[in-house]
Amino acid sequence: MDSVRTVVNEVRAGRSLQPKSWPGGARAAVLLSFDVDNETIAVRYGEPTVGSLAEMQYGARVGLPRILRLLDRHRLPASFFIPSVSLALTPTMARDINASGRHEFAVHGWIHELNTTLPDSAERALLKKAVEELTALTGRKPVGYRAPSWNFSPNTLDIVRDMGFRYESSLMADDAPYELLHRGQATGLVELPVQWILDDAPLFDPRGERYMNPRDVARVWMDEFDKAFEEGGMVVLTMHPHVSGHRSRIVALEMFIAHVQAKGASKVWWATHADAADYVRKQAGLGEPKPR
Questions:
Q1: Which intervals hold domain NodB homology (predicted)?
Q2: Residue 47's pLDDT is what?
Q3: Rounded to whole angstroms, how far apart are CA atoms 3 and 176?
């Protein structure tokens, strides 16, 4: 049991940061996030093919503009988690995302690296490089981190804390925001949890065994929202421009937005991850992230 406890307590959910209410008396919070991976999904393995690169280029060339037009139409904010290599390959994405003044840039690795396979020194160097490059390309230093493939190495949380991030969004221990514990100690770091059922990539893979019709996916997301609304909670959606940016798939996001907006503008708080993390931190009286 000593070994079990050591493993289990490495990174653990601490106290809930679920607020008593959301800004303006809203009943629920909705956080839209987009992991702008594009070609990094192909090149991170070192042997990309022309076909796979073309498929992923769709994200920057077609998918992202289509998604931004939808968000602009409804004046909705979103958080864009971007491997810095992805943005370096198509730097105009920074201009396009920045144009509305509503969106947030956050870190999603350097090249969507398989961080769980890397030694501390390599993982640390790549994340430092990603932050520097995203800051230079976007004009803003990112405050949020999302691990590539939503997983931590034994060193990831040490590195994230050392680099001063204010929130993290890769883990799945709750529906509500919570404080991360690190080896049994409170960190002051806000976790905004994700979930595979609220991610488009596994559900929209036409070559996989889990493929779902976009309208069926929209129903799952709407049902999640309805329960969150009933409970006074939060929904975090994760989408990818090279996935949800397709014409037949963006229907799911359109349906979800329409369903949420039908509750009334005052009943739902649409927020970036950074704004949500700052809000729950303040409401919970949580201090600044603690250096390790």
A1: 48-268
A2: 79
A3: 29
Could you give the number of structural domains in the chain?
1
Identify whether 236 is part of a domain. yes
**Residue 289 placed within a domain:** no
Task: Please report, for residues 77, 131, 149, 241, the alpha-carbon distance to residue 42 in angstroms, rounded to integers and kept in the order given.
Answer: 28, 21, 14, 15
Cα separation, 105 vs 133, whole angstroms: 12
Dihedral pair phi/psi, residue 30, rounded to 5°:
-125, 125
Is 241 in contact with 59 (CB distance < 8 Å)?
A: yes
Alpha helices, H only, 75-147: 84-89, 92-98, 120-138
Q: How many whole angstroms separate alpha carbon 182 and alpha carbon 184?
A: 5
Q: Is residue 292 part of a domain?
A: no
Q: What is the CATH number of the domain that holds 160?
A: 3.20.20.370
* Digit-coded pLDDT (tens) for 123-167: 999 999 999 999 999 999 999 999 999 999 999 999 999 999 999
Whole-prediction pTM? 0.96
Query: What is the Rg, in whole angstroms, of the alpha carbon atoms belonging to the chain?
Result: 18
Q: Which of 250, 249, 241, 208 is nearest to 56 (CA)?
A: 241
Nearest to 189 by CA among 292, 291, 289: 289
Domain hosting residue 158, numbered range: 12-284
How far is the C-alpha of 26 from the C-alpha of 24, rounded, in Å?
5
> Shortest CA distance to 28 belongs to which of 218, 238, 276, 217?
276
Asked whether residue 254 is assigned to any structural domain, the reply reads yes
